[in-house]
Design brief:
With about 170 residues, this protein is mainly α. The protein has six helices and two strands. A hairpin with a 5-residue loop joins strand 1 and strand 2. The two termini are about 25 Å apart.
Amino acid sequence: MSLVPDDKDWTWVLERQCDECEFDASVTATADVAQMTRDASAQWVELLTTRVDVTTRPRLDVWSPLEYGCHVRDVYRVYTKRLRRMLNEDGPHYENWDQDKTAVEDRYSEQDPVAVAVDIRDEGTTLANLFDSIEGEQWERAGFRSDGAAFTIDTISRYFVHDVVHHLHDVGAP
């Protein structure tokens, strides 16, 4: 089950409102991404520490809230690394991240929801602080996925925040 396609047709995320979660990256200011990350992190922490169904899959082919939370934690980690490379290297190329393989190998479904919540809080804070540190022309620094898709810090930040918000929608968060 691939939750975030690593395909070349990713630009729609930046051009229009998502039909499923209704997030609209085309009207999202990069200056808002850090706070949006903090807000989403707080929602994930609340969800992972209070929901009684946190380990329950609604269907066999749909992740549980815990599994989505593990994915979001790892998205924070991956994007922090990518963002740091974009800030410190000229045109870095990122290795492919097989999200489904990571979920299986790291046994997302067996992880402790409270520990995942703490990680989300900490990793989200780190990434939000990094977004806060970006200034002026840094937003236009480029990076490239393994499939050749090109991002700027501006576009990767809005692509990223859609992913985190979308997964809150996936688990039925308000």
